[in-house]
Specification:
heterodimer, A: 1 helix, elongated, B: mainly alpha
């Protein structure tokens, strides 16, 4: 599989996906009760 | 606190601005410049200067950010509920600072001939520095989201 970081679009999309993953993680596991 | 926020923003704009310059402009420009024999203009005169401001603005950004957190530094880095969002941003920024000083800068010194390296070492250094720089570009996207969310909420 090609490394997404080899292309600029792959890098930006990977960053957006990571943002969504961290958002879900924060909402479900870090912000409980806040 | 206002002065730390101001410095954090200015240094952060310089750091991430230069990071985006490297990734969105210089990498592609160098490829084209190498093809017509003009790469030295970039590698000799532009890249070292850009890297100088890049690596030191990263340090200033982190230090001003740490000062700005003040008593929230430990709650942020331990991801306590009331500081978790800024904490995620702070962790991402810290990983990025690590990448600048441990992966990008030492390898760029080899690439630009500031430290001696064989052709094999230079090729490997090129790949490591490139991937670390791309990783930082990727991390900057959630980092900025969570820095903003840490202050203003989602």
């Amino acid at each position: 599989m090609k490394n997404p970081l080899d292309s600029l679009w792959g890098t930006v999309i990977a960053g957006l996906v990571l943002t969504v993953v961290l958002y879900i993680f924060a909402n479900n596991f870090l912000l409980n009760g806040v | 606190m206002g002065i730390f926020r101001w410095v954090h923003f200015m240094a952060g704009v310089m750091w991430i601005g230069l990071l985006y310059y490297f990734n969105f402009v210089q990498v592609a420009a160098l490829k084209n410049a190498a093809a017509d024999g003009t790469a030295a203009g970039i590698t000799k005169h532009v890249a070292p200067r850009a890297l100088l401001f890049f690596r030191w603005s990263a340090v200033v950004t982190w230090l001003a950010g740490a000062a700005l957190l003040g008593p929230r530094f430990v709650p942020a880095f331990t991801l306590q509920p009331d500081a978790a969002l800024i904490g995620i941003g702070a962790w991402l920024g810290t990983i990025m600072l690590f990448n600048v000083w441990v992966l990008i800068w030492p390898n760029q010194k080899k690439i630009l001939g500031m430290t001696p390296a064989s052709d094999d070492e230079k090729n490997r250094a090129r790949r490591v520095a490139f991937l670390a720089s791309r990783t930082n570009t990727m991390l900057s996207i959630p980092m900025l989201f969570f820095m903003g969310a840490g202050v203003h909420g989602f």
